[in-house]
Amino acid sequence: MTWQTNADNGQPECVTCPGGQRAEVVGGRKEGRYVATFDASVCADCPLREQCPTQPLVRRAGNVLRFSQREVNVALPRQRCAEERAAERHLRPAVEATIRAIKHPFRNGKVPVRGRPRVSMLLIGSAAMNNVRQIYRYQRSQEAAGQAGEGSQKASGSAWKRPVLSFCASLWTRLRAFLCPMHLVQPAWACSR
């Protein structure tokens, strides 16, 4: 079943079965319960009839699907995951790999500093280094593939490395000076003598 919900309150508006038949959702007798009625003539010819969770109505024609808001809340994340898997590009693995690469330099995923400013600066530096590594890996793969001309590729490949590496070195020096200042290494009473 494919669910479509109201963006404001999250209540279901219509349901589409795997056979392609669409039904409007109506509120049930109790709060949080819903009913969707499908056309019985279309359901009779459906090849998925034996697996269908709908039940035929006794007094009028139609097959009814009764469900609760909880069932919709469980089904919607599954539906989103199935749509993402069917898509050409998978964003979730890329995002999780990036987060892992940012957290990886720190033992057990815990940063070695305290305080929001220091933690944010450390994570920004880690993300910058991750970006540099990805750019470097991309450049290496382009060089290996030999997509551009031999002479121009070598010139452009080495031209970007020096400024990026010097930027990373200066960033590391500044972060290190900020995160580990000398007055924290020696106590105040040791400096007075």
Major sheet: 6 strands, antiparallel
The class by helix and strand makeup works out as alpha+beta
- Work out the radius of gyration: 30 Å
Helix content range? 40-55%
Give the neighbour order of strands across the main sheet. Answer: 1-2-3-4-6-5
Strand content: 15-25%
- Tally of discrete structural domains: 2
Uncertain runs are: none
Q: Please count the helical segments.
A: 8
Kindly report the average pLDDT value. Answer: 78
Number of strands: 6
Reading the helices and strands in chain order gives: EEEEHEEHHHHHHH
Q: How many angstroms separate the termini?
A: 77 Å
Could you state the oligomeric state of the chains shown? Answer: single chain
> What spatial form do the alpha-carbon principal axes imply?
elongated
How is this structure best summarized?
The chain is built from eight helices and six strands. It is of the alpha+beta class and 193 residues long.
Word description of this protein:
The chain contains 8 helices and 6 strands. The chain is elongated, with a radius of gyration of 30 Å. A hairpin with a 6-residue loop joins strand 5 and strand 6. The protein folds into 2 domains: 2-86, no CATH class; 91-191, no CATH class. The chain has helices at residues 40-44, 69-86, 91-103, 116-145, 150-159, 161-179, 182-185, 188-191, and strands spanning 2-5, 12-16, 22-27, 33-38, 55-56, 63-68. Strands 1-2-3-4-6-5 form a 6-stranded antiparallel beta sheet. By secondary structure, the chain is α+β, with helices and mostly antiparallel strands.
